[in-house]
UniProtKB/TrEMBL annotation:
Protein name as annotated: Rieske 2Fe-2S domain-containing protein
Protein family per UniProt: Belongs to the bacterial ring-hydroxylating dioxygenase ferredoxin component family.
UniProt xrefs under InterPro entries: MocE_2FeS (IPR012747), Rieske_2Fe-2S (IPR017941), Rieske_2Fe-2S_sf (IPR036922)
Positions of the Rieske domain: 7-103
Keywords for this protein: 2Fe-2S, Iron, Iron-sulfur, Metal-binding
SUPFAM superfamilies the record matches: ISP domain
A Pfam family it matches: Rieske
Cofactor: [2Fe-2S] cluster
GO molecular function: 2 iron, 2 sulfur cluster binding; metal ion binding; monooxygenase activity; oxidoreductase activity, acting on paired donors, with incorporation or reduction of molecular oxygen
Protein's organism: Cohnella zeiphila
Amino acid sequence: MSAETWIEACGTDDIEEEDVIRFDHGDRTFAIYRTDKGDFYASDGYCTHEKFHLSNGLVMGSVIECPKHNGRFDIPTGAAKRAPVCVDLATYPVKVENGKVFIRI
């Protein structure tokens, strides 16, 4: 079993409510979200339909809409919510400490 690896992704002030930003780490891309309730989440950064950056998408409450074909995912769970997406997003644990957002990968 490997140890948890927490990576600093951004500051809490870097993301407005109902918004998303891109976070690259190594050879991977993640999306870091802040919902309308101020909660932070993280997922893979590409849409599972055609590998388009979700950071260019629209956050509506706790849903992210892909900017390419308007497929939607539930942000907290990664569940595919609207066609054409049918494969769920991988999501990652998030913690907030001292004004910084960390994800566990």
